[in-house]
Write a structure and sequence with these properties.
299 residues, seven-stranded mixed β-sheet, four-stranded antiparallel β-sheet
């Protein structure tokens, strides 16, 4: 989840800088109207946190997350009409808002409304979380990389994963994140000094991500309309420790994911957003995760 949020946050850097359009005949417009921006996700079973409130910046200004961050907003969140106390917490991105009760976890099948007042503006949005997601078949935690010639073929059925179906979910998002691009041997039994390395790539590389964000270097996103997935070896960029995340997104979350293209596309259409009075995203999803360790070919 953290990586997905990082990808989306980098896209938001493009969003909060007001875009301009030019033509051969028209002068470059210089008018600028400040907008209020929110980035927030309610993930079933997870803490209510990392809600970010920002202002847009003029194209003539150098973008900075800290400069865009709004740390004095009034943020109110309601779960099924019951208010959740919210507090501000500082961080390297300029700060975010979270539930004051650190033990609070987002509820399934619940309506979450947010109301933000800042910059003389009021922003509102409502999203409904899906039912909880659960594993049916988690697969082995340690998997052996096959011969490099097998990269484009799915793994054995024993490596497949599957999960419970979530009503009204049209697309499940799959995220695979390498947790340690340096360490390898220290996780083995017995431990060794062996360091991590990249996996061999298929030729041609159908999983190539030329021009992607730096944050995608350790993570790759995909998806399926089914509640199951085979292991395709080519999606692994590294050996070693990985985290597999499966999201069942609601309409608002999925619409945002489609627009940002897993963090690789800089598009945003406010008409597709549920935000009233501003810009951004307020969506929900269910999430399950598990860890995998990918052994190098030959041991």
């Amino acid at each position: 989840m953290k990586t997905l949020m990082t990808n989306i946050r980098l896209l938001l850097a493009l969003l909060v800088v007001t875009l301009i359009t030019t033509s051969c005949e028209d002068p470059i417009p210089t008018d600028y109207t400040e907008e209020l921006v929110i980035e927030g996700f309610v993930i079933v079973g997870e803490p209510l946190a990392n809600i970010r409130v920002m202002r847009t910046l003029p194209i003539s200004d150098t973008f900075s997350f800290k400069k865009a961050a709004v740390n004095d907003a009034t943020v109110r969140v309601f779960a099924n009409n019951s208010e959740i106390a919210i507090e501000f917490v500082a961080d390297s991105f300029g700060g975010s808002y979270r539930a004051r009760d650190a033990s609070y976890r987002v509820l399934p099948s619940s309506s979450y409304q947010i109301r933000v007042k800042a910059l003389g503006k009021t922003l509102e949005a409502t999203t409904i979380t899906p039912i909880a997601l659960s594993w049916i078949k988690e697969g082995p935690n340690v998997v052996q990389f096959p011969h490099p010639d097998s990269l484009l073929f799915p793994g054995a059925d024993s490596l497949a994963v599957s999960w419970s179906q979530v009503p009204n979910t049209e697309f499940y998002i799959i995220g695979l994140e390498c947790l340690d691009t340096l360490g390898y041997g220290k996780y083995l039994t017995p431990a060794s000094s062996d360091t991590n390395t990249r996996t061999p790539r298929p030729k041609p590389d159908f999983f190539n991500r030329d021009g992607t964000l730096v944050s995608n270097e350790r993570t790759i996103f995909g998806g399926t309309i089914f509640s199951a997935s085979q292991t395709i070896w080519g999606v692994f960029r590294w050996h070693g420790r990985h985290r597999l995340n499966i999201y069942a997104p609601n309409k608002e979350f999925l619409e945002w994911f489609y627009q940002v293209g897993s963090g690789r596309r800089s598009s945003y259409d406010y008409r597709l957003s549920n935000i009233k009075g501003g810009l951004g995203v307020w969506g929900g999803a269910s999430l399950i995760r598990t860890e995998k360790f990918l052994l190098k070919y030959g041991g």
